[in-house]
Amino acid sequence: MRNIEIMLSDGMIGTKAVLLALSSLTTGNLNSKIQKNAKPFEMKDVLPSTHEYIVPPLSEEQQREQTNKRLLAFLAMKPGSEAYLKG
User: Fold this and answer.
1) Are residues 50 and 38 in the same domain?
2) Contact status, residue 14 vs residue 21, Cβ threshold 8 Å
3) What angle do CA 25, 28, 32 make, to 5 degrees?
4) Which of 53, 21, 13 shows the shortest CA–CA distance to 29?
5) CB 23 within 8 A of CB 43
6) Quick one: 31 and 68 in the same domain?
7) pLDDT tens digits, residue range 22-69?
8) CB-based contact 55:20 (threshold 8 Å)
9) 44, 26 in Cβ contact below 8 A?
10) Domain that holds residue 63
11) Total Cβ atoms within 10 A of residue 36
């Protein structure tokens, strides 16, 4: 019985699915109306109180890894940077 309760509250037909659909539709609608150089809306902007429920916070290791990936992506945007980033 407990599994059914979890499935209903967090599953395909539950609260989590509704919040994901709502945030996706809302952010898509808002992002279609903003200027091209503006920061796009994210789920945490639209539903801040439920963001941590849907997307749990990253661990310190995951945060470091994400920072490294973003830094590499930023560096890769410079023309001719491929030669320096290999290895």
Assistant:
1) yes
2) no
3) 140
4) 21
5) yes
6) no
7) 888 888 998 899 888 889 988 888 888 777 777 778 899 999 999 999
8) no
9) no
10) 59-87
11) 4
